[in-house]
Amino acid sequence: MAAANTPDFNKVLYAPLAEIDPEVQNIIDKETWRQFSGLELIASENLTSRATIEANGSILTNKYSEGLPSARYYGGNEYIDELEILCRKRALEAFNLDPAKWGVNVQPYSGSTANFAALTALIQPQDRLMGLGLPDGGHLTHGYYTAKKKMTASSIYFQSFPYALDPSTQLIDYAGLAAQAKIFKPRLIICGASAYPRDWDYASLKATADKEGAYLMADIAHTSGLIAAQTLNNPFEYCDVVTTTTHKTLRGPRAGLIFFRKDGPGREDLEKRVNDAVFPACQGGPHNNTIAAVATALLQVAQPSFKTYAKQVIANAQTLASSLMAHGYKLQTGGTDNHLVLWDLRPIGLTGSKVEKVCDLLGITINKNAVSGDASAQTPGGIRLGTAAITSRNMTEEDVKVVADFLHRAVQLSLVLQKEAGSKLLKDFIRVATTESDELQGAQQVKVLRRDVVEFARKWPLPGADVSTLQKPAGIEEEF
Ligand SMILES: *Cc1c(COP(=O)(O)O)cnc(C)c1O
Predict the structure, then answer these.
(1) What span, in angstroms and rounded, lies between the C-alpha atoms of 238 and 311?
(2) Residue (of 112, 139, 389, 134) closest to 243 by Cα position
(3) Is 219 noted as a catalytic residue in this protein?
(4) Fewest CB atoms within 10 Å of the CB: 6, 25, 258, 328?
């Protein structure tokens, strides 16, 4: 509340958002309603906790704290120091790491900035690195480039060379990677992916890295929650540096972490190199509100219930995979070990773009994704699905079968729409999918299926919102 003597120029500082800025409040309300009414199957998304959201929206956002605990460039950081030390301790605990052997920097703003800082720490400009190619499920920040363009800082400032999947198994081609590394002589090998449904053989990667004198870095952005829960292989046994986002399976706020090894030949100074790379090389002041939220999320990760959550995420992904395969659909690698499923739509004559579009109209959020052997990166032949978010809304195997049935209907409906479009063009497809005309059957079916999806989705709670009092906000047009 503003004090009685607050001057006019400061009165805005005390007004609630809904009062001072109904426009932004309405956008937040619409987005809350969308999250409540839809099925979130984007594999990189999750629903963070109420406590995390509270910490993220806290007054800690006011504070500058460049530097590290006890070595700051500004005063007034006694509580921020306490926070950052707590967050680091919880990060090591969440991943069962010995503080004598591992350290962590909790300041990265997000996964991409964490990765660039890690590259800055590990190798010199123009040094060679290898990462899984983007079309094979790798991430942009692992050295992606095209024939025409160096796309990301990881290929602009370093020489990169991608390794690939074995096309016959769609698994990482470890032997091929070893053979390429022998010729290319990378200083750094990056493992980890954004669209790979199987676990990694870190021991094999470590053998190759050692042979060629390279560092080994794992970017576990997607699977970090599952690794913390010890449901997947442990990259910390073999890697020099491990980076992650905190907002995917780890279920925290949007941020990044860099873990570094503190011992071993040539690794003694990694702590200083990583810390110097984050600040001042790549970032400025840490986002302390986010660090508080990361700490809160990591507290949750270390609890036994998180292990149960992670196991359920995987059981749900495996149920999703087997339900889709029971309908005769083709999945890359024929299943999953983790939270995601890559669905190859080419055998039924659809593209990822069309199915993504139809699902969007239905309130099911997914993304188009390249599948192994795709001829063109412009028209990916598959979609990527993940179960982290729906598991956070309490869904278990029986509910996932309902979700799989919605997806089956969505894909069959896409075939009807493609036929009605009379061409293979996406714009014709969208036109028939969204037409108000009663003559086309597909658009009618879109409406029916949308109602079924929304009715199902609204049965579930949404962390961070009280759905019992949630009202449809102004500006949303829908009949139900
Ligand atoms: C999501 C992701 C990132 C990037 O994270 P941002 O927070 O979006 O910058 C990096 N690496 C991998 C493997 C990812 O999946």
Answers:
(1) 24
(2) 112
(3) yes
(4) 328
Q: Render the burial of 27-43: b for 16+ CB within 10 Å, e for the rest.
A: eebeebbebbbbbbbbb
pLDDT at 437: 82
Q: How do 159-163 and 102-105 pair as beta strands?
A: unpaired
CA 139 to ligand 1 centroid distance, Å: 7
**Given this model, what pLDDT does residue 298 score?**
98
246 is catalytic: no
Average pLDDT, the chain: 96
Instruction: Tell me the CA–centroid distance for residue 111 and ligand 1, in Å.
Output: 5
Top mutation candidate among 42, 139, 290 for ligand 1, by most atoms within 8 Å of CB: 139
C-alpha 457 – ligand 1 centre gap (Å): 27
Give mean pLDDT, residues 303-318.
98
Q: State the pLDDT at residue 268.
A: 87
Residue-wise pLDDT for 227-280, tens only, equals 999 999 999 999 999 999 999 999 999 999 999 999 888 888 999 999 999 999
Which one is catalytic: 208, 245, 246, 391?
245
Active site residue 262: no
Whether residue 236 contacts residue 259, with contact meaning beta carbons closer than 8 Å, is answered with yes
Tell me the pLDDT tens digit for each residue of 65-87.
999 999 999 999 999 999 999 99
- Whether residue 28 is predicted with pLDDT greater than 90 in this model: the reply is yes
Tell me whether residue 273 is one of the annotated catalytic residues: no
Confirm whether 141 is a catalytic residue.
no
Task: Quickly list H helices, 246-303.
Answer: 270-276, 288-301
- Whose CA is closest to 189, among 152, 238, 251? 238
Which two tokens mark 321?
């995979």
* Pocket of ligand 1 from Cβ distances under 6 Å: 44, 110-112, 115, 139, 141, 192-194, 219, 221-222, 245
